[in-house]
Each structure stands twice: as C-alpha cells, then as structure tokens.
Write a structure and sequence with these properties.
Layout (H helix, E strand, L loop, with lengths): L1 E5 L3 H11 L7 E5 L8 H4 L6 H4 L1 H9 L4 E4 L10 H7 L2 E4 L5 E2 L15 H8 L16 E5 L3 H11 L2 H5 L5 H8 L5 E5 L11 H6 L6 E4 L15 H15 L7 E6 L2 E8 L5 E13 L5 E12 L3 E4 L3 E2 L8 E2 L4 E2 L1 E2 L2 E3 L6 E7 L2 H4 L7 H16 L13 H8 L7 H16 L11 H10 L1
Parallel strand pairs: 1-2, 1-4, 2-3, 4-19, 6-7, 6-13, 7-9, 8-9
Antiparallel strand pairs: 5-14, 10-11, 11-12, 15-16, 17-18, 18-19
Helix pairs in contact: 1-13, 6-7
The structure holds flavin-adenine dinucleotide and NADP nicotinamide-adenine-dinucleotide phosphate.
Flavin-adenine dinucleotide binds next to helix 1, helix 7 and helix 12.
C-alpha cells in the first residue's frame, strides 16, 4: 500500500507510526508538509520555555527513520500538488493539516495595528516562516490577552518572562531582540466566563506563580462566588492556585499579570494613529444553556481598560485547502468519524481520512493524537483491503512531477542538516537551537550542501 500523509505534526506522525508498525501489510508512507521543517505545532506552537514537551520530536524522528517512510517538506497541498495528483499516486490519503487559521472576536476595531491574533504572536516568537515579519510593537506598557486557555497563558508568559529566562530557549532570535526592548509591564488575561469555567490547566496556571520577575494578581472578589469544591479535580486545583495568588502580596518591582474573569471586550479603541488605545469591556454573568452548560451573557455594565495592545487567544480553525471538503460550521475538514465526506451530501469519499486538529478542531494535547491517529489507521486498513492491487505510477514519479513544477522537496535527511545548523547556531547563545525562520534561507543552505 502507498499512503500519502499531508502534514507532519503529531497527528500525521502518529498515523505514520501506526501504519509503519504493521506487520500484516507493507506500507510506503510519503509525508508532505508545506514547510521544509517537520513537526507542526511541536516546532511552531509549543512555547519555547516548554522544551521538555518538544522532546517528542525524537519519537517522530525514529518513525521517519523507518525504511519505507519519506518526508517531502516544502510541498503545499493546494498549491504545489492537487488532491487529484494525490489520488493518482497513492492508494489512500490522510489529511493531518491541523488548524492554522484564527478565530475572530467579531467586534469593532479588530484588526487595527497592535491587535494581533495569537496565531500571529505565537508563530512570530516561535520562528514560523509565515510570521517572521509580523509587526509586533512592544513599546506599550499594558497588554490585554483575550481568552482563558493555555495558549493565552503561553502568550502571557512570553510577554512577562525576563530575557535571561528566554534566551536559553529556542525562541526566535528576532522575537528575543524585540522582547529585550519591551516596555510591557502589565498584562491582563481576560476570561469571558468565571474561574470555574477557565480552559487553562493547573500546571500552566501554577507556572505563572514561578516567573523570575513577574507576579500573578487576582482580586479576591473574582473568586467570591466560586464553590469550595466543584467535583472536578482539575477545576479545584485551578481554584486553589487562584486563591493562593489572591492571598499573595505581589513583589513591589515586578511586572504584573492580572487575571480577570466574567468580562468580554465589546470594542477595541484606536488612537489618532489607528493603533490600539484601549478596550471597552462588558461585565458578564453566567446563564445556563438548555444542555446545562454555562454561557457568558453581557450584563449591560461596561468599563474601560487602558491597554495599548490586544492579543485575542480564543482558539484556532482549519484553513480551507482547494479540493478538500470543508465543514463551514465547525471549521474543520468535513468528516464522519475521520472519514472525509462531501460537505453538502455527507457522502464518504473513499480512501481519504483526516486526523488531528483538522478532524476534531483545536482541542487536545500532543499525546492524545497517538491513540486517535492509530484508530483512524485501523479504519484505513480495513477499508483498504485489496486496494494494493491498483497499480500506481512508480514511487519516484511524484518527485518528477514536483520537479516539473519547479518545487524543491526537502527530505528528512535535508531536514537533519537544517537541524544540525540550528543546534550549532543555538550553542552560541546557550540555547537548544537558533531557528532559521526563512524558507528561502533554508533552501539556499541546502543548495550549498
Ligand atoms: C500555541 C500552542 C501551544 C501548544 N502547546 C502544547 C503543549 O505545550 N503541550 C501539548 O501537549 N500540546 C500543546 N498544544 C497542542 C498541540 O500542539 C496540538 O494538539 C497538535 O499539534 C495538533 O496536531 P496536528 O498534527 O493535528 O496539527 P499541527 O501540529 O498543526 O500540524 C499540522 C501540519 O500540517 C502542515 N500543513 C498545513 N496545511 C498544509 C498543506 N496545505 N499542505 C502541506 N502541509 C500542510 C503544517 O505545516 C503542519 O506542519 C499547543 C497548541 C498551540 C496552538
Ligand atoms: N502547555 C500546554 O499543554 C498547552 C499550551 C497551549 C495549548 N494547549 C492546548 O491546545 C488547545 C487549544 O488551546 P487554546 O487556548 O487555543 O483553546 P481553548 O483551550 O479552547 O481556550 C480558548 C479560550 O478562548 C475563550 N473564547 C473563545 N471565544 C471567545 C470569545 N469570542 N470571546 C472571549 N473568549 C473567547 C474560551 O472561552 P469559553 O470557555 O467561554 O469558550 C476559552 O477560554 C487546548 O487543548 C490546550 O490545552 C496546551
């Protein structure tokens, strides 16, 4: 069997592992990624001060070392290759393209200068080539981050950590330089619902209390309505930490992270130059939905928050890819239990599957994809019985096609060269790596080799 996997993040690599570990079927896996570098959000999302999590890349590299695996980086589905091309060259296709678009607040002022979605900010500090030129202006003292998830917490830590804390990480050099000159002193983390509904995990919340020169600040009044025990162990851990922060006296000369709850931005205000100059917030109350969950509802009571930058960190969504059915409502690849379906008729498109965030939306940790991708592979193998009899063009025909189109695929060996260069550059600043952030520079470097 020959299978194409599109996307080299955790979901794609765990699917490859499940395919290549099979002893009953020999599977050739070609994994494509639009970037020359593998690993998706492990490289471009996970925070630079969370190096331990990134060691999962070693597991993926051992999958890549299997003899029937090939990596074809720098190849974008929808630009360099079409779905029809894939159908001609492979028996089956797995889309593992993640969620690379951002969700919008949908309020006036969104999109003005210094209102920067988390996708952009995170990509910028992680050296994602798409965002290396993002205009991140840290000449302001106060920043609002909208959202109460782990991405919001990541962004807050990066804004508040010291240069000494960051320079030993693999943060992009351009971001380190901008952060070195940052004037940010106060960050406001804004949750539209209450502390009991916050999406962040207690491990991330705990880290906020251990920053070198920044302290979390929580008003006791924010916690007054919270139950002593909620019946949910993780929520109880969060509440315990928030209560401890509320009881703390913050150090005098540190930067401050204010955790605010039950507020929604309703308008982003601009100064004369068209840059963020403040936020109009509406106080919320919680209202039960028919299913029993709690929704934030505006109370009609407003306040002004004096900030010069806004970072909405309210979730991600899948990008549309030409030829791949898209579920407009859920903003994922249209699928039924991981089998790709026509978006309108919901008819299954044979031999095409979707895994990871492209399948289920932007929820869940890296490790959770192992099981989910392995389950998808079980479907694929069951559905594919007998398919191997279909004669395909030779395995290298796809390389010839790409060459014809002027595309230079990057192999896993090529990536290892880039990896070595980055690691070597990193040693100069005592960091695990110093990323190359420009695709042209990566290709030029490989050309020289
Ligand atoms: C900011 C952030 C921080 C996170 N931190 C953690 C953490 O600390 N710990 C944790 O467990 N989880 C973390 N997560 C969650 C974790 O990153 C995700 O669960 C996981 O990466 C999703 O895997 P995926 O393979 O579906 O998508 P991705 O990792 O996004 O991989 C998708 C891949 O597809 C490629 N691609 C997209 N479109 C195309 C195309 N058209 N053609 C070819 N290739 C394409 C992309 O370049 C990318 O390499 C974090 C998420 C974010 C957003
Ligand atoms: N260190 C880590 O382990 C780590 C780091 C980063 C990310 N991740 C994982 O990656 C996934 C994605 O993280 P995420 O933070 O992007 O998403 P998330 O966990 O879904 O959090 C999104 C937050 O945005 C809020 N929100 C959504 N729409 C909003 C709106 N219109 N106005 C105001 N607030 C709004 C949500 O509030 P409601 O709850 O009210 O909808 C929620 O607080 C999660 O599974 C996360 O755990 C893990």
């Amino acid at each position: 069997m020959r299978v194409a996997i599109i996307g080299s993040g955790p979901a794609g690599f765990y699917a490859a592992e499940a395919l290549l570990k099979r002893t009953d079927t020999v599977v050739e896996v070609d994994m494509f990624d639009r970037l020359p570098t593998p690993y998706g959000l492990v490289r471009g999302g996970v925070a630079p001060d969370h190096q331990k999590i990134k060691t999962v890349a070693r597991v993926f590299a051992s999958t890549a070392a299997r003899p029937t695996f090939r990596f074809l980086g720098n190849v974008c589905l929808g630009r360099d290759l079409s779905v029809e091309d894939l159908r001609r060259h492979y028996h089956q296709i797995i889309y593992a393209t993640g969620n690379e678009a951002d969700r919008r607040l949908g309020i006036p002022g969104e999109g003005i200068a210094r209102c920067t979605p988390a996708t952009v900010f995170v990509g910028w500090y992680n050296g994602h080539p798409d965002y290396r030129k993002a205009q991140i202006d840290l000449s302001v003292e106060r920043v609002a981050i909208v959202g109460n998830g782990n991405v919001a917490i990541d962004a807050a830590r990066i804004l508040l950590r010291t240069v000494a804390e960051l320079e030993k990480t693999d943060i992009a050099a351009h971001a380190l330089e901008t952060l070195r000159a940052s004037r940010v002193r106060e960050v406001f983390l804004l949750g539209r619902r209450g502390p009991e509904q916050a999406a962040f995990s207690s491990a991330e919340l705990k880290e906020l209390g251990a920053m070198e020169a920044a302290d979390p600040v929580v008003a006791a009044s924010e916690l007054a309505a919270c139950a002593e025990s909620t019946g949910n162990a993780e929520t109880d851990r969060n509440l315990k930490l928030l209560r401890a922060y509320a009881a703390r006296v913050p150090r005098a000369d540190t930067k401050k992270l204010h955790l605010r709850f039950l507020v929604s931005p309703v308008e982003i205000l601009a100064d004369a130059a068209g840059k963020v100059a403040g936020l109009r917030l509406e106080k919320n109350r919680l209202e039960a939905r028919p299913d029993g969950s709690l929704a934030a509802r505006g109370s009609g009571e407003y306040e002004h928050l004096d900030v010069g930058m806004v970072l909405p960190a309210i979730g991600y969504a899948a990008e549309r890819i030409a030829g791949v059915p898209y579920d407009e409502k859920a903003r994922i690849i249209a699928n039924a239990d991981g089998r790709v379906v026509d978006a309108a008729s919901r008819t299954v498109i044979a031999n095409e599957y979707v895994v990871g965030w492209a399948r289920s939306g932007p929820q869940g940790l890296i490790g959770e994809h192992k099981r989910a991708s392995a389950d998808a592979v079980k479907h694929l193998i069951a559905d594919g019985a007998g398919l191997e009899a279909r004669v395909l063009p030779g395995r290298d025909a796809i390389l010839a096609l790409l060459r014809e189109r002027g595309v230079q695929p990057v192999s896993f060996e090529d990536w290892k060269q880039l990896d070595d260069v980055e690691v070597e550059r990193g040693t100069r600043r005592g960091a695990p790596r110093d990323k190359i952030v420009d695709v042209a520079a990566m290709l030029a470097l490989l050309g020289q080799h």
